[in-house]
Design a protein that fits this description.
Layout lengths: L1 H13 L6 H16 L7 H4 L13 H22 L1 H13 L5 H7 L8 H23 L1
Helix pairs in contact: 1-2, 4-5, 4-7
Length: 140
């Protein structure tokens, strides 16, 4: 939802639209209704919530969460699937610190963030976890 909010406001800005507080309130309201569904009361007080979230004051900061989560999930999956070799690459990743560009360090660890694979793997993992949760909830 945060990422969509950011994308929407950048799109509107690039289209020449003025970003007013009223417009941002409207976008935030619409997204809250979309993401939380009809059971949630989306009132006027929530409309201005966007203003208190510091992430929105740094260009596409929210996307950093997604890429970090995708990289971490891929690293973990590789260690589970490949064992010792992936574990050694992970240790090398940790030892690298800031010795090179982050994308290069990740690639050396076995995670190529220039492809869609890490995000696709993470979405598949998330989908599996949701399926497991739904199954668990259906049994209770």
């Amino acid at each position: 939802m945060f990422a969509e909010f950011e994308k929407d406001i950048y799109d509107k800005s690039e289209e020449g639209e003025t970003l007013t507080a009223d417009l941002l309130d409207e976008i935030w309201h619409t997204l809250n209704a979309k993401y939380y569904g009809p059971e949630m009361v989306v009132d006027a007080e929530i409309d201005v919530e966007w203003a208190r979230i510091p992430h929105f004051y740094m260009d596409f900061y929210v996307y950093q969460y997604v890429t970090g989560y995708a990289a971490a999930t891929t690293l973990a999956e590789k260690m589970l699937q490949e064992g010792a070799s992936a574990q050694q690459r992970y240790i090398g990743f940790l030892k690298s610190g800031g010795a090179d560009y982050p994308l290069t360090i990740l690639k050396n660890a076995g995670v190529d963030m220039s492809t869609s694979q890490p995000v696709e793997l993470t979405l598949a993992k998330f989908s599996t976890m949701l399926d497991e949760l739904e199954l668990l909830l259906s049994k209770s």
